[in-house]
Amino acid sequence: MSTPIDELLRGSLDHCVKCTICETACPVSNATPLFPGPKYAGPQAERYRVADEPSVEWSVDYCSGCGICTQVCPQGVKIAEINAQARHKLKRDKGVPLRDRIITRPTWLGRLGTPAAPIANWSLTFKPARVLGEKVLKVHRDAAAPKFAGRRFSKWARSRTSPVTGRKVVYFHNCGTEYYEPWEGEKVVAILEHNGFEVVVPKQDCCGLPLQSSGLFDDARKVVLRLAKALAPHVRDDDTIIVGNATSCTLMLKREAREILGLEDDPDLKLVSERTYDICEFLLELHDRGELKTDFQPVEETVAYHAPCQQQGHWIGKPALELLALVPGLKVAEMDARCCGIAGTYGLKAEKYDVAMAVGANLFEQIGASGAESVACDSETCRWQITHATQRPSVHPIDYLHRAYGLDGAA
Amino acid sequence: MSARTPQLHYDAVVIGAGTAGLTAAVRLAEGGARVCVLAKGVGSTHLAPGTIDVLGYAPERVEEPGAALPGFIAEHPDHPYALIGADAIGPALQWFAERVEQGPLPGYRYVGGLDRNQLLPTAVGVVRPSALVPETMAGGDERVREAVCVVGMRPLRDFHASLCAANLSHNGSSARAVEAAVEVDRADVNSVGLARRFDDPAWRAAFAAKLAPVVHAEERVALPAVLGLRDPRGAWEDLQQRLGRGVFEIPTLPPSVPGMRMFEILKAALRAAGGRLVLGAEVIGADRAGGRIEAVRAHASGHDVHYHARWFVLATGGFASGAISIASDWTAHENALGLPLRGFPAPGQPRFVADYFAEQPMGRTGVAVDGSLRAEGAENVFVAGASLPGSLPWKEGSGDGIALASGHRVAQAVLDAEATSNLRTPA
After folding, report:
1. Tens digit of each residue's pLDDT (9 = 90 or more) over B245-285
2. What ipTM is given for this predicted complex?
3. Could you give all domains of chain B from N- to C-terminal order, each with its CATH number?
4. Pick from A40, A254, A322: CB nearest B301
5. DSSP string, A273-287
6. Which residue in A20, A32, A288 is closest to B8 by CB distance?
7. Which residues of B touch A273 (CB under 8 A)?
């Protein structure tokens, strides 16, 4: 398929001056010889990729899709996006493993796992089951697997009414919040309500990011357009915005679905894209306007903060750092390693687990050296990977705001 | 809530994260300003050799840049150095050297100054006159008469030891090349991949053991500048000790490991001073109010963001970085804020001359500024680095010196203006 946006992405490779800045920043090529690097696999190899002819090289499958290459490129080359499209073409040529069709469907997994949470969670920690999973499904036996909460966030949200205040926000909770960490969503709602917002939680589903990052574009398109259709009616007025706490999923809605999946022209997605805010981005802007409540109680703790790659893809800096700085007593150690390695589902895959752990080694080492008791990070899959590798609890940055507001007992 | 784009407010916004932008930002933040750096991507640091070349040729080779600057400035009254002032250049170098020593790389430091240029070999073995250089490079000065053994590393395609040694010999040094085959677990080997290996003491020891037998007794050892990113000083000293002789780095083709060290040092200083860095945020326009810029509009995912500030520093570079471009109708444009340019040939005037290495008519193009580096038509915008008009850095050997000294200078101008105005209000 060749839509104008495809041509725009592909055309951006002509801006590549081979400066190699992307190669200095790529977490994957700096950890494994299996991926030769973003410039090599992207702007260079792309010249040899011809529509409807077989893929010329397969290493792009080892690109984790973190997007750092695009972020650091001073010439505006859409390196990660070109590579995502190459990965899609590769999967189309080569076939998609059954595993990739399963682990990219958080909704199916969540619906199956939630009612059977005790058994499902037990099997995730039961070694023989994991070994079998590795043999049959090629999901690495040691990879970080989240535990089903056994309850769904949306059920909690439907069971209550957000106080009507005349200031409304729409909350996009993602699959991680829905099935694995419903308490994160409850905290988001509590913080927004504490700041005088009525929180609307529309019926919603996956954003399609796992499908997209595994190269399953057709399925990803269906999924993300369904989500855009569900969210758009709530923001048709001039005023309402959407906030989300899953930074990779909000990035999917903001930019990746439009650019990588070639959905630039869908009106619902366009509206949703413009109106979507990362929760920390939104709270920082409120603070800038003098509208964020700052009735924070001290939190005497040292926390390491890691900004995940997908958060960096918002191109808004690190608003979480500025928010955490508002909490009295809280000492924040900013990690400057780039990536934890997991990249959504990448680090779960049996053939990529070791690469992912090597990518994250630098971060894990910094966390160890920081003396922090816990790690704040905006993406749930990164948090699971960090906890898996460092044995330290990892939470969303807003957890600290929630505690400092004294909302712990209220949620 | 309205569907307006987000608005954020700072005291100063710096556009560009190269040497000039980061220098200005660090200095502003250290001076107490709330600073935000917006950059489309990583900048010049990763491409430049990491040395601070102040004045190398004017047009003959300059031995003493400090002594040569007043005369150079008198001959070039529109040159950035004339606007910065000869007296302001030394303090900028001093300031930078201190930031390096206080930085995250243990013991790593720069040596030299305006008294005397260091005459260091480039990757092709010709002399590069440079005022302030990493200590790890200083041993390469051509005035050191010891013979040089230039060491190439087999998988690295960005450094050719035999070419470098042949040119050094041609110019009167005693030099020869050896090739060391090294194992780097990386598909496309570049200087960064090697630098990460040199961070590992065990790997380094094995490398030194392999190299020791092929180096002659009286030789210095020249290595491509890949001696680590985490502790280059430690790696350099370790190799000198293991080889029992002087070792020095020669800059490679990009990516530049010494340049990356410089970026990390300035980034850490910015962080320590409370400044903010937003990478990926291309500035695509300005909100103006008369002769002032109220805010700049930066591209972000999903929606643009308006960054308001009392002061702006434009340090986006020139033609090479894409900050200034020429349209198909042969008009030139500054792309971030749409500021007027100076030095671009008028319609009908020649833009190029046939001799490639001669001064090109459009070579001195930059953003039009007044005598205090303020942008024409925007009273609260200062300009620094390669965005400035009036210089030929590649010919003068002056790019990093201009970047550093102008970044330092404009930060001072902003801090002075803040100190003398009553505009400053606590957030």
Report:
1. 999 999 999 999 999 999 999 999 999 999 999 999 999 99
2. 0.95
3. 7-98+261-317+325-342+396-420 (3.50.50.60), 140-245 (3.40.50)
4. A254
5. HHHEEEHHHHHHHHH
6. A288
7. 302
